[in-house]
Amino acid sequence: MKHSTHFLILILVFTSCLSQRQVDSNNVFRPEFDISKDNRRIVCSYYENNKAGIYEIDITSKEKVKLSDNSKTSLIRPKYSPDNDKIACISESVFDDLKSKICLIDKSSKAVVDLTSDSILILECVFSPNGEQIYFSGSKYYGNYSPVARKAPHDIDIYSVNIESKKVRQITNFESYNLHGLSVTNTGDSLLFHLDSKTKNGLILMSLIDNGIKQIIANNDLRAEKNLTPYEYYLPILSSDNLNIAFSEPYELYIMNRLTGVSKRIFRNEPVLVNAGYFKFFNDYNYLMLTLPTNIDKKNSSGDNFGFFTLNPETNELRTLDIQ
């Protein structure tokens, strides 16, 4: 029953940011993005002719460069390599949303190379700090465990692929109901993620040395203090210095200091409540960039297109980035 409850919350509240495939639309951004090491550019997915392509956008000049001219598949959820010379992303068939694989784009040549097969449904990926491998989450089952729930990925585990050899290794055996928000520590020795499994639930820090698991819990649960649903720690993301974790709750964003365990709410859009599509710390300082649905003319709209914003976690000031 607990798994079903978690699933319903995710579907009702985070449909736009956790779904593998976005509703078919053209000339719209997907919510996911990544920020370059110098904080000057982002990579994101943009739909044209019913297919998502990867674009790099200069935040200051607004110049857009398409990096995936020759791809025959939709490319989503891009990630910069540590040296920013390559982009890892998920390649999904435009005809079958159950087939996906990890590919690597060379920014200079725009060549696209497959790193994995499409034998499992790949959900998200992240580079190791040394750039030699990519960690990713993958699902072996796409369906529903409840007659009132829609189909979604399940039996999810964490894998790695060596970029040079393309050798894939399964790291965990969670067979989890839900696993998302992969971050890797800057030392490369641990992964952070949200997990719903048969034995563990919540915000998890897992050692890549011995697979040891530590559950992370804030010292102050601001939602529980107001008799709301306690923290679930959706879509967790680490800051580049590993000192802060940002996470999402229904219609809100929070930040937690890892040293003190103290959390703070940094976003809630009043009076029109919306969920952030995705968010990410800038490198070397703790401002965040986030995406929000642009068609928020009606209450609780999930949106088909997303705009880009910056958020100061000290003042909670939200500013629009005009890069559409």
**Residue runs with pLDDT of under 50 for 5 or more positions:** 1-20, 297-303
- Give the termini distance in whole angstroms: 42 Å
Tell me the CATH superfamily.
Answer: TolB, C-terminal domain
What is the count of distinct domains?
1
Shape: globular
Adjacency order of strands in the biggest sheet: 1-2-3-4
Beta-strand content? over 45%
The assigned structural class equals mainly beta
Helix content: under 10%
Which CATH class applies here?
Mainly Beta
The DSSP helix count reads: 2
Q: Count the strands?
A: 24
The rounded Rg comes to: 18 Å
Q: How would you describe this protein?
A:
The N terminus is likely disordered. The longest helix is centred in the N-terminal third of the chain and has 17 residues. The chain has one domain: 6 Propeller (Neuraminidase), CATH 2.120.10. It is built from 2 helices and 24 strands. The chain is mainly beta.
Summarize the structure.
This protein is mainly beta and 324 residues long. Helix content is 6%, strand content 47%. It is globular, with a radius of gyration of 18 Å.
